[in-house]
Amino acid sequence: MSERARTLPFSHLLRGAVDSHVHCAPHINPRTATVFEAVRDAAAAGLAGLGIVDVFANTSGLAALAMRELGDLGVEVFGGIILEPYVGGIDPRVVRNALAMGYGPGTGARFVSLPCHHTRFVALSERRPADYVAACFHLAPGAAIPDSLKQILDLAAAAGAVFNTGHVSGSEAVRLVEQARSRGVAKILCPASYFSVDEAKAVAASGAFIEFSFFVLSHATAIGQTMIDDERHRFPPVTLESVVEKIRTVGPEICVLSSDSGSYVLPPPIEAFRELIVMVQSAGFDDDAIRRMTAANPAALFLRSARG
């Protein structure tokens, strides 16, 4: 990160922040930064933590490697698993492996997420064929929670990992949060950009944090990208007004802001994170509210250092 970048407006709000949602290389799609570059940029900006995310791989080992090589820079790097079919799907064995991957106790997965792309909610928005949609994760109204998912929730609870509901509908997220809570999961995060206000209120009332990221607010939604296969698809755009309404409704106390950046169509993660901060603060949130959503809340969810 250049000296000029460190002096851009609102860069001071990056100091002590945690970007819990960064995509970086190595990857099968083009990325703006390697994991080491992302950590160095985060350190130069003064970030306290960085979460490495990948729909094709468990990132726990990559994060542990980054900590071993660059831990002296002061950024706590963490990873986890998104239970897409490409990493083994919604299978407790996959989660056990992720929780153990690293350099000993405490270096495994910090988060366990349901799919972000291979869900019925996303497949329908992408207008996928019926057979594809049918194969995606979906929690039908009134349907029982699968035993495999119950086991995964138990594993997350025992490990103190964050359970992320993935890109599901708001009504599914409400049920998932309630089920996770009932099984002892203490830390839950819901990507909420596509929730209604009432759905956001419901998951918050059940004890979950809700996440809003730069990606869906950016021009990236106008560009077809190969997210998980050879087909190009776009996420529906989200307005800043809708995000602000949800933040004001539930309060910054349970909201998390993240870049969800690293894709070649976006600025590097640090700049994307800064731009998101600028957008949200322009809507009238003061420095304390921004720091709550970018530093205190994600630190409480993800950082080991925040526990001591």
How would you describe this structure to a colleague?
There is one protein chain. The chain has one domain: Metal-dependent hydrolases (TIM Barrel, Alpha-Beta Barrel). Strand 1, helix 2 and strand 2 (49-52) form a beta-alpha-beta unit. 40% of the residues lie in helices and 11% in strands. The strands form two sheets. It has a six-stranded parallel beta sheet with strand order 4-5-6-7-8-9. A three-stranded parallel beta sheet has the order 1-2-3. Helix 4 runs parallel beside helix 7 (147-159), helix 8 (170-182) packs parallel to helix 9 and helix 9 runs parallel beside helix 10 (240-250). It contains twelve helices and nine strands.
Query: What is the CATH C-level name?
Result: Alpha Beta
Percent of residues in β-strands: 5-15%
CATH architecture, by name, is Alpha-Beta Barrel
Low-confidence stretches: none
CATH superfamily: Metal-dependent hydrolases
Q: How many structurally independent domains?
A: 1
> Main sheet, how many strands, which sense, barrel?
6 strands, parallel
Note the overall shape: globular
CATH topology description: TIM Barrel
Mean pLDDT: 93
Class per helix and strand makeup = alpha/beta
Adjacency order of strands in the biggest sheet: 4-5-6-7-8-9
Number of strands: 9
The helical percent reads 25-40%
How far is the N terminus from the C terminus? 29 Å
Roughly how many Å is the radius of gyration?
18 Å
Quaternary structure type = single chain
Q: What are the secondary-structure elements, in order, as H or E?
A: HEHEHEEHEHHHEHEHEHEHH
